[in-house]
Design brief:
The complex is a heterodimer of chains A (about 160) and B (about 170). Chain A has helices at about 1-5, 15-40, 40-50, 60-80, 85-105, 125-150. By secondary structure, chain A is mainly α. In chain B, strand 4 (about 115), helix 5 and strand 5 form a beta-alpha-beta unit.
Chain lengths: ~160, ~170
C-alpha cells in the first residue's frame, strides 16, 4: 500500500523524518517517566491536583487515577510509533493543559510560597516554579513541532 | 492537502484518542481497585488538611489576640512577614524551622497558646509548622486557616517590618 501511495506523492524529506522520530521518542520517554511517581503515589498526586485549585474536589480522585495511565499510553504510543495522530493530539492537549494550569495559577498569584505544589516544602520553591514553566514550554514547543510534522506531512502514509 | 486524506487523519485521531482514553480509564480503575493504597473514587480524603482538630476560627483568634495571651507564629517566608503580619506575631518560616526554632521559641512556655498561620485556603505551611511544634513539646498549638487573608479581610490590625524576626 505504501509503494502505491508513493507513486503519487512528493518525496519525503529525510530531515523532517529524523526530527519527527527524535521528538516523538523524547516526548514519549518524558510522558512515561512522568507517569511513574503518579502511579506509585496516587494520594500525593491527588493532593497536588487539589492544590492547583482548578478541578472541583470531587474530580480530584478520578483525575489522579486516570491521568497517569493516559500518560503511559501516550508515552508508549509516541515511543513505539503507533496511534500517532491520536497520541500526538492527546500529548499536545495535556501539555497545553498543564501549561495553562501553571500559568493561570502564577497569574492569579496563587501563593507559590505556600508549598502547594509538592508534598514537602522545598526552600526556594518559587525558583522552581519558573523552571517548571520553562521546562513545560520546551516540551510544548516540541509537541507543536511534532504536531505539524505528523498532521501536515506531505504524503500522510503513516 | 486532498480533502479525503484530511478526513482520514481526523477520523484516525478521533478513534485513537477515544481508544487511549478508554484504555486509561480501564487501566486506572482496575489498578486502583487491586492495589493496597488505592483511592476512593469520589472521595476527597487526600484533600483534607491534617490537623483539622487544631484549627481556630478568625473570631477565636481575634478574641485570643484581645485577651493578650496568644503567641502568633507566621509560617510564611520572611519577606512576606515583613510586608505585613498579625500584630505581635513572630516570624518562623517553615523552610527555616530547624535553624530558628530554638531562638524564636526560647521564651515561650510549653503550655502557651500558640496559633500558626500562613496564607491561602490550601496553604500547608501553618499546619506543618503546628505539627512540628507539637513534636517539640508545645502542648497547645493551633492553626488559623487561611490566616493572613482572612485577618486582613476583616480589617483587623496588622504590623509591618521586622518585629521578632531572626533575619
Amino acid at each position: 500500500m505504501t509503494s502505491d501511495m508513493k507513486i503519487h506523492q512528493v518525496p519525503e524529506r529525510p530531515a523532517a523524518n529524523i526530527l519527527r522520530v527524535l521528538i516523538r521518542v523524547i516526548l514519549g520517554a518524558v510522558f512515561l517517566y512522568a507517569s511513574f511517581d503518579k502511579i506509585i503515589q496516587p494520594a500525593a498526586f491527588a493532593k497536588t491536583i487539589a492544590n492547583y485549585q482548578i478541578l472541583p474536589d470531587i474530580l480530584t480522585h478520578p483525575a489522579a487515577i486516570i491521568l497517569p495511565w493516559l500518560e503511559v499510553i501516550i508515552g508508549l504510543a509516541l515511543l513505539l510509533g503507533f496511534w500517532l495522530p491520536g497520541s500526538v493530539f492527546l500529548a499536545n492537549l495535556l501539555l497545553v493543559s498543564f501549561m495553562g494550569a501553571l500559568s493561570f495559577n502564577m497569574a492569579r498569584g496563587l501563593n507559590i510560597y505556600c508549598g502547594c505544589f509538592t508534598s514537602t516544602v522545598v526552600p526556594g520553591e518559587e525558583i522552581s516554579m519558573g523552571w517548571y514553566l520553562l521546562r513545560d514550554g520546551i516540551f510544548l514547543t516540541m509537541g507543536f513541532i511534532l504536531f505539524s510534522l505528523v498532521f501536515f506531512r506531505k504524503d500522510l502514509s503513516e | 492537502m486532498p480533502h479525503r486524506k484530511r478526513n482520514t487523519i481526523v477520523s484516525h485521531t478521533l478513534w485513537q484518542t477515544g481508544a487511549a482514553l478508554l484504555l486509561s480509564v480501564i487501566a486506572g480503575l482496575l489498578v486502583n481497585q487491586i492495589r493496597s493504597n488505592g483511592l476512593s473514587l469520589w472521595g476527597s480524603e487526600t484533600v483534607q488538611e491534617k490537623g483539622d482538630l487544631h484549627t481556630v476560627s478568625l473570631e477565636e483568634a481575634h478574641r485570643m489576640y484581645l485577651d493578650g495571651k496568644v503567641f502568633f507564629l507566621d509560617a510564611r517566608p520572611a519577606a512576606d512577614y515583613r510586608l505585613g503580619h498579625l500584630p505581635g506575631a513572630r516570624s518562623l518560616p517553615l523552610a527555616d524551622l530547624d535553624r530558628y526554632l530554638p531562638d524564636i521559641m526560647e521564651d515561650i512556655p510549653q503550655d502557651a497558646v500558640i496559633v500558626t498561620y500562613c496564607d491561602g485556603k490550601r496553604c500547608v505551611l501553618a499546619g506543618k509548622l503546628a505539627n512540628a511544634l507539637r513534636e517539640f513539646g508545645f502542648q497547645d498549638v493551633r492553626t488559623l486557616v487561611n490566616g493572613w487573608s482572612v485577618w486582613v479581610g476583616s480589617n483587623l490590625p496588622t504590623e509591618k517590618g521586622n518585629g521578632k524576626n531572626p533575619a
